Amino acid sequence: MSQPGSTAPAPGPGRSRQTQIFVDGLGGARPLVPVAPERLQEAARRKLDAPAFAYLAGGAGAERTMRANLDAFAAVKLVPRRLCGSASRDLSVELFGHTYPAPVLLAPLGVLELAHAEADLAVGRAAAALGVPFIFSSQASEPMEEVAAAMGDAPRWFQLYWGTDEEVTRSFVRRAEQCGAQAIVLTLDTTLLGWRPRDLDLGHLPFLRGQGLAQYLTDEYFRSRLAGAPLPATSPRPSPALLRTAASLGAHGRKFGLSLSQMRAAAAHFTASYTRPDLQWDDLSRLRGWTDLPIVLKGILHPDDAREAVRRGMDGLIVSNHGGRQIDGEVGSLTVLPRVVEAAGELPVLIDSGVRTGSDVAKALAMGARAVLLGRPYAYGLALAGEAGVAEVVRNVVAEFDLTLGLLGVHAARDLRPEHLA
């Protein structure tokens, strides 16, 4: 409680963001992007063309897993305590020896050029301005070196898909180290591409058009494969759709110094090699030999897998079902979080899939997560307003989280516990 004459605590990010919006509103200004998650998604749907929105927003099968993720967060209820004097809050989180300002990281999202021309560069700059880590995607639209340069010394991790071309996989790890990545995130749930009706109905896979291949097209090992790669068959009288595909491939080729035939070969080699269905636990020992960075396994849903990760000497876990994009009818990530946390012991556990609001962040931390990964919402912000849109989405989530802590009577993010839940 403040004493007479004492200095009031500085407003946290919640009150600061809230005040900014209301003061701007006096002059008739509105936020760049909608604050409510449903309106944010709907605004992005109106802005994007159908294939782009389908890829960013869609899920596997009947999208029951996507609904399960949202339903899992909706089912968990918070219970505040009163008169706790939480006038100021500490939102910081420590992961692998680094301290970040809030327990929010930007998830690795592929093919961000579908949302905005500046793609990963815009996201990287927004993340750097806020101090939150950005996890570079293997399926990025801009090479990791350029995004790292745009971010300066701001924190970044790298997400790895382990393909059948192991020299390329190993090269990605080396490049991530050279770019200053603070961790390697190995995605385990995409050894095969899930059945995604929205994309299938449109016959749209962006990689075949040269999109989302920046890490590969700038990799010396991947580029060395292009001379001998088989070219996909083409019609002697190409349709307008094939002509548009050729134009897209040609544009990406010019950007990365490759000919149209090389780009066709690149698309063919990528689709033939980017997944590895035979990946097994024993393979992790090779990854450990390639890097001294912390290795975080993304896609863990079963406690036995968490225990095996501990036994194999992994450094962290991300509870995830890939945002509902891989298996229709999968369990919601938040539903299994407590069991995975228990099985993981001292390993830090993060979570993604279904995080939309600051109160979602609070629920996840109360259930044992160290931090969350925010995905689709920042992509929608990117679509609507580029770098500034990404920054606003992240600020809004962090602001609501800060206010939620204060209203729960919690002084620090690390103090959230199961007793704050019904």
From TrEMBL:
Q: Which UniProt keywords apply?
A: Flavoprotein, FMN, Monooxygenase, Oxidoreductase
Which residue numbers delimit the FMN hydroxy acid dehydrogenase domain? Answer: 29-422
The question of whether Iron-sulfur is a record keyword is answered with: no
Q: Does the keyword Cell inner membrane apply?
A: no
According to the lineage, what is the superkingdom? Answer: Bacteria
Write down a Pfam family by its short name.
Answer: FMN_dh
- Binding-site residues, FMN: 108-110, 137, 159, 187, 298, 320, 352-356, 375-376
What cofactors does this protein use? Answer: FMN
Single Gene Ontology MF annotation: lactate 2-monooxygenase activity
Residue numbers binding glyoxylate: 55, 161, 196, 322, 325
Q: What positions constitute the catalytic site?
A: 322
Note the CDD domains from the entry: LMO_FMN (cd03332)
Question: Known EC number(s)?
Answer: 1.13.12.4
Q: What's the family?
A: Belongs to the FMN-dependent alpha-hydroxy acid dehydrogenase family.
PANTHER family from the entry?
FMN-DEPENDENT ALPHA-HYDROXY ACID DEHYDROGENASE PB1A11.03, S -2-HYDROXY-ACID OXIDASE-RELATED
Name listed for the protein in its UniProt record: Lactate 2-monooxygenase
